[in-house]
């Protein structure tokens, strides 16, 4: 029984991307690989629109988070963390460990920190950086990034670091236009690649800041160590994950073929249809409607449904979803619907959820969600 992995990362990996991971590994100095790597870096800069640099290194999103902040700050700098959930909070701990002075603006889970509050806070101190999680995977909240970018632009010294791990390649992120100074992300979500790549884009202001810091404490994640390699991948600093870089290249090819704007629009359509179908089945969603992510849904159980049992039966019906985090553990499941998933995946998922509810005693659901899904997708 094949299981559809509908957790919010890793997302389903399409065959053509899997094939790249299954290729015979070559030397990292192989001229064809060097050319491929160079193309990947160029495409990332084109798609996410920056005059700066793109970095692709072996690691996960958390490593990218470290890389994002470590290159633009030094001990005792003031930084502001905007937290919409578990991954926002992760940036608090990470920054504190680096000896930064951290102020936090936190929202109640399922809501946002109002942009006016961010602006007010930025006026209080000379913050050297602000971090914002574009989509917090724990709450399904999508930050109003374009508006935040406009506000941060007014503060010359404050660099905007965006955690796009659960957003990049599904929610618009254009660095230089939107005032994003550093975008950090990973391969396993909306890129639809297996886990294992930390991807970081840095705009001109961030690169200038890095230069001004001199030698930094971190080694593996130092921009200055990697810049020569990203410009000319024939050079060596750390062994590149050859097959994952090929996989990313194929993912970018798919993205270019689809068109990035079309990809963003598709994610909206899919998310709204999935969310309507879930509501039709009687679920409620944690994230307030006007700030709901397109990459995943954070779905609250109705009375009488127990988390462990629901997810076990759903897996028997062929679909794997993730549990809730923090205070929502046991109260919610998290359903990813991003990347290269297709219509069949969506229908199968909603149908499996219906069969699960049916087996758990809610009998009047068969066909309802699937009907709603189709209706929405045909609009
Ligand atoms: N930020 C966000 C928004 C995430 O969703 C995740 C992973 N779920 C991370 C950071 C950390 O990424 P990783 O698990 O790849 O280290």
TrEMBL record:
The modification N6-(pyridoxal phosphate)lysine is found at residue 189. Its cofactor is pyridoxal 5'-phosphate. PROSITE patterns: AA_TRANSFER_CLASS_5. Substrate binds at residue 334. Transmembrane segments: none annotated. One of its GO terms (biological process) is glycine biosynthetic process, by transamination of glyoxylate. Keywords: Aminotransferase, Pyridoxal phosphate, Transferase. Residues 56-325 form the Aminotransferase class V domain. Coiled coil: none annotated. One of its GO terms (molecular function) is alanine-glyoxylate transaminase activity. Belongs to the class-V pyridoxal-phosphate-dependent aminotransferase family. This is Aspartate aminotransferase. It comes from Tepidimicrobium xylanilyticum.
């Amino acid at each position: 029984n094949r299981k559809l992995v509908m957790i919010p990362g890793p997302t389903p990996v399409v065959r053509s991307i899997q094939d790249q991971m299954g290729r015979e590994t070559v030397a990292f100095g192989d001229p064809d690989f060097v050319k491929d790597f160079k193309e990947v870096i160029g495409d990332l800069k084109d798609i996410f629109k920056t005059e700066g640099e793109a970095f692709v290194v072996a690691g996960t999103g958390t490593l990218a988070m470290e890389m994002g902040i470590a290159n633009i700050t030094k001990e005792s700098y003031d930084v502001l963390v905007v937290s919409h959930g578990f991954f926002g909070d992760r940036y608090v701990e990470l920054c504190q460990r680096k000896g930064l002075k951290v102020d936090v603006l936190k929202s109640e889970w399922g809501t946002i920190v109002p942009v006016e509050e961010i602006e007010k806070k930025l006026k209080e101190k000379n913050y050297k950086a602000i971090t914002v999680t574009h989509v917090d995977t724990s709450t399904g909240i999508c930050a109003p990034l374009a508006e935040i970018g406009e506000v941060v632009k007014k503060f010359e010294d404050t660099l905007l670091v965006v955690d796009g791990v659960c957003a990049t390649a599904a929610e618009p992120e254009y660095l230089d236009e939107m005032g994003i100074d550093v975008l950090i992300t990973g391969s396993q979500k909306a890129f639809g690649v297996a886990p294992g790549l930390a991807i970081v884009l840095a705009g001109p202001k961030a690169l200038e800041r890095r230069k001004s810091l001199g030698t930094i404490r971190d080694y593996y994640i130092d921009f200055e160590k990697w810049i020569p390699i990203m410009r000319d991948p024939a050079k060596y600093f750390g062994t590149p994950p050859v097959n994952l870089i090929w996989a990313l290249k194929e993912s970018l090819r798919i993205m270019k073929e689809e068109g990035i704007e079309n990809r963003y629009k598709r994610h909206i359509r899919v998310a709204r249809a999935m969310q309507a179908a879930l509501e039709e089945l009687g679920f409620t969603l944690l994230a307030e409607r006007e700030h709901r992510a397109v990459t995943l849904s954070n779905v609250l159980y109705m009375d009488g449904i127990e988390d462990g049992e629901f997810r076990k039966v759903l897996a028997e019906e062929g679909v794997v979803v993730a549990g809730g985090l923090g205070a929502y553990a046991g109260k919610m499941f998290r359903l990813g619907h991003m990347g290269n998933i297709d219509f069949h995946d969506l229908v199968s998922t909603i149908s499996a959820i219906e069969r699960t509810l049916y087996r758990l005693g809610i009998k009047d659901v068969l066909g309802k969600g699937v009907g709603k899904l189709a209706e929405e997708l045909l609009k």
